[in-house]
Amino acid sequence: MRERKCIVTGEVLPEEKLVRFVVDPQGRATPDVAAKLPGRGIWVSATREAIERAVAKNLFAKAAKANVTAPKDLADIVERQLVLRMQGDLGLARRSASLVMGFDNVMRALDAKMPPKLLIEASDGAPDGRRKLSNAALARGGHPATLDCLTSHELSVALGRENVIHAALLPGGFAERLAFDAARLEGIRHAKNTKEGAGPIPAPDERDA
Q1: pTM exceeds 0.85 for this model
Q2: Which CATH number goes with the domain that contains 59?
Q3: Do 55 and 84 sit in the same domain of this protein?
Q4: What mean pLDDT comes out for the span 42-46?
Q5: Residue 16 has what DSSP assignment?
Q6: Residues paired with 95 in a beta bridge
Q7: What is the 3-state secondary structure (H, E, C) of 94-151?
Q8: Label partner for 122 (CA 20 to 30 A): which of 34, 131, 159, 200?
Q9: Distance CA 134, CA 103 (A)
């Protein structure tokens, strides 16, 4: 994993903990969550606090040594881009048959010769089902990572099914890329959820729907 320097903290971090920005032709700081846009990259730690500080302290202009503007809601824009990117990958994974949905299907997948690489849990889902699936994976000697930064609604939109709470991804590129993006989204959403206080009411488990 390549490392870059955050313009806010000065830390040198792996790219999975950073968000890349570029300056567009109009002189605006533009998020590049896929790290593919042309131009010199400006890197900021993938936390809401770091992005908001970069905007408030005019650090994009200092890094670019030019007049650069940045919207006050830049952290929200980054959040939306990451969610959309993850939703797109989830949809592609479903169509490629590398994703299973539903508590029972995930439980059966844990017994397969190629068990899931990534467990996907709705952030507003009840903890009981998540705990049971995690314990089942451990009992079988598996240690899949868990993606739990998307809501049930966001998962449902991505997967074309109502009330998605539990899903799992088989090993492969989709699992790796989603885990990469989830680490960044969690950093941005953690501070937001802390500011807003208690989380949303848990969505009903699909077994109870």
Answers
A1: yes
A2: 3.30.1230.10
A3: no
A4: 98
A5: G
A6: none
A7: HHCCCEEECHHHHHHHCCCCCCCCEEEECCCECHHHHHHHHHHHHHCCCCCEEECCCC
A8: 34
A9: 11
